[in-house]
Structure formats: structure tokens, C-alpha cells
What does this fold into?
Amino acid sequence: MVEEMNEIRNMLNNSTIGDTLKACICNRHGHQYCICNDAVINALNILLNDINKNQNSKLFQANKQLIGMFCDFEELYLYVKNLIGGVYGIGPLTVYDTAKRLGHIIEHPIYPKDYVYLHAG
It folds into this structure.
């Protein structure tokens, strides 16, 4: 998991914000291999739209850094859930994993402390 997070952080420095967010939404090497591409692209577009057009976004990019204006992980999780939780093909575990990955790579990382979601597979 730490290796995956470091890989995503390196992407942020060397790739587009879109590629980085896509990696946060879906890790094709893990249990998320079966999420359909349409769901990933729809979720990605929602996050990008929020970052690009909303000056009041709680997640935005400045100087190749994702800035997160969140008090704790639960607030970040609710932000992600409110944005992409309704996308067909994106379930609660994907929302959680996306928030967890974003929490690791934002300027001041935040991690889950009250709730941990487990994969039953």
C-alpha cells in the first residue's frame, strides 16, 4: 500500500492531474480491476470539473501539488462521496479508497482514524 501511495505521489509530480486522479480512483492492479472504464472516466471528470471550475473547491492544484482543505479524513471522505458516490459503477469501497489515496498525496496528508472499510473478498 505504501508503495502504491508513493507511486501516485510521484505521478502528481511527473504526470497530469488527470492521470493522478485516475490512479486515485482506480487501481487496476488490486481489487478494483473490475470497475468499468466508463465509471472511472465519469468519476474522474467530476473531480476534475470540481477542481478546475470551482474556486471554492476543497481540493485544488497549485504548483503541481494537490491542496486539500480538510480538517480530517471523514471530511475528505464525505467530499469524495458527495462528488462521485452517485456515479454508476462507483461503490462505497471505491469512494473510500479514492479518499484514502487522495488523503495520502495532498499537501498535508490525512489518514482514516475513526473508520476503516474492509474488503470482504
The CA atoms of residues 29 and 75 lie 27 Å apart. Residues 37-53 form the longest helix (17 residues). The radius of gyration is 13 Å.
